[in-house]
Amino acid sequence: MIKSVEIINNAFRGTSYITDNPISPHPSPIHQPPLCISSPFSSPASHQHNLSIHTHKYTHKYVYPYIIPNISASVNRTIAGFSSREAFLRVEEMSKDGNGSVDTMRSPYEEAMEALSSLITKRSRADNNNNGDRFDILFDYIKMLELEEPIKQMKVVHVAGTKGKGSTCTFAESILRNCGFQTGLFTSPHLIDVRERFRLNGSDICEEKFLEYFWWCWDRLKERTSNEVPMPTYFRFLALLAFKIFAAEQVDVVILEVGLGGKFDATNVVESPVVCGIASLGYDHMEILGNTLGQIAGEKAGILKSGVPAFTVPQPEEAMTVLVQKASELGVNLQVADPLDPSLLSDVHLGLEGEHQYLNAGLAVALCSTWLQREGHVGINYLNQNTSLPEEFIRGLATASLQGRAQIVPDHLIESESPGDLVFYLDGAHSPESMDVCAKWFCLATKEDHNPSYNQSYNIAKGSHESGNSAPLVKNPTQILLFNCMSVRDPQLLLPRLMNACTSHGVHFKKALFVPNTSVYYKVGTALPTADAQVDLSWQITLQRLWESLIVGEKGRDPKSTELTCEAGNNDAEKGCHNSESSTVFTSLPQAINWLRNSVRKNQSVRFQVLVTGSLHLVGDALRLIKK
């Protein structure tokens, strides 16, 4: 806690100092936050500076404040724009909380997350009884932030879809970056940190830049909004922030993933993208988008713009009919991009796992080729090349990365004790169609782990082959399901698809674990909150009962095959679990992870292959726990 402060001006250097000892002969300079590479903000030479941020034809004056360490961001923002004496008086005034101290507990980033969380509405997504949900109000926000011209100048690739749109955007960003362009990528949702949504040249935006742009947007919107034009909701604020970031960073190309639907999505304020894409369509968010594929396709087609070329992938007939009709009405040349031929990659693998990614990669290649052509950067029509791809495209496809989609992660604790004995297969599938794709990927990925060479390498690592007398230790692969889905989704459409697809590939789960999401939907942050001992498990019990009914109806299943040595509920840490032979409901995700770790330690002949799916929130929570 800071009891008192005094700002001391250095007449020779033109800088300011802060000290808690007025008579100190060597005060420490006020700390400036580290600047990221290519930051638009330069280190100030005096206590107040007007910095010009040039973004295309747009120039904005920004007052860059001194940052005083160990006090909250609100204090630092309050002293921005004042002289040293005025800043001191403001800090002194804010410190009078009865004890004459300033709260230093929250970091600037934590304060930003708290502010962002306040924008999350706890209403149903289908509830339209709110002024802030009107689409046209987005243009009011853009005017408040003076972003009209910067958005018009952006060279945008815009992608909608039910599944695969995030992967398509990731491939497209990687391709264009490897072609030598400065890239900005906006995706959703994030898994661990909200900064994942904003990528600059392939990397998440650094914390320093994020905070500068965040408070720049936040403070201006707070000043200019009203009851008639309230603060934007959570996703809309993030989309506006993305536009601000990409404009200020002067990227060459912006790749935007639609958040929800298309027609009324916050990213759809871009009126003249360079090219549009629609990934695979299926049933999701039906409470908002409609109950038929035709209705859903109509919403997704809302991103199509007159005169702007567009691509899609092979779609169900009902969806394709609507897409073609909407494109015809707008005079859009809608083309179907075929899945990428693996032979075009010159024996290189895609950076994203799963056979379904060749579909997304094919769409990304079409989008990037068209973007390059329309922007005058290439003279060769890559779309007609059937024998090879440019080296830049191959490198981009091979190095693309996206967490939580067909991702394989060994548990960091067990890996140090018994390599390969506890491996998580994470995929945020949450629609019926994506469950099929996820199941196929999981089955193929785990079968690759069944070959004898793995056991041999494991035994060598464990020292079991030190002499010819040692019998090899055979590690039996055991598949476990770790599942949750949001209550707005129909588990009757998800769990049967998952089980049937796995069964058709010869994979049977020995145990299914159901847990509530640790992250709460109305709070943003990077740390896992403490598990709630009074958490409502009624939804997880519903999922468990459905799973048990599927187990009973599964033909050819040996009930005894579900037995495990370590049963939930045998110790204090596992009390309160709803346990059966083939499934368990845990009160928290950490409890389920601990059970898996203990089970591996007690079953020396078993390797656990854990599929984590049903919710990207669940996948993000799991990554926090199992990665270093």
Automatic annotation (TrEMBL):
<dbReference type="InterPro" id="IPR036615">
    <property type="entry name" value="Mur_ligase_C_dom_sf"/>
</dbReference>
<dbReference type="GO" id="GO:0005524">
    <property type="term" value="F:ATP binding"/>
</dbReference>
<dbReference type="GO" id="GO:0046872">
    <property type="term" value="F:metal ion binding"/>
</dbReference>
<dbReference type="InterPro" id="IPR001645">
    <property type="entry name" value="Folylpolyglutamate_synth"/>
</dbReference>
<keyword id="KW-0547">Nucleotide-binding</keyword>
<keyword id="KW-0067">ATP-binding</keyword>
<dbReference type="InterPro" id="IPR036565">
    <property type="entry name" value="Mur-like_cat_sf"/>
</dbReference>
<dbReference type="GO" id="GO:0004326">
    <property type="term" value="F:tetrahydrofolylpolyglutamate synthase activity"/>
</dbReference>
<keyword id="KW-0554">One-carbon metabolism</keyword>
<comment type="pathway">
    <text>Cofactor biosynthesis; tetrahydrofolylpolyglutamate biosynthesis.</text>
</comment>
<keyword id="KW-0436">Ligase</keyword>
<protein>
    <recommendedName>
        <fullName>Folylpolyglutamate synthase</fullName>
        <ecNumber>6.3.2.17</ecNumber>
    </recommendedName>
</protein>
<keyword id="KW-0479">Metal-binding</keyword>
<dbReference type="GO" id="GO:0006730">
    <property type="term" value="P:one-carbon metabolic process"/>
</dbReference>
<comment type="similarity">
    <text>Belongs to the folylpolyglutamate synthase family.</text>
</comment>
<keyword id="KW-0460">Magnesium</keyword>
<dbReference type="InterPro" id="IPR018109">
    <property type="entry name" value="Folylpolyglutamate_synth_CS"/>
</dbReference>
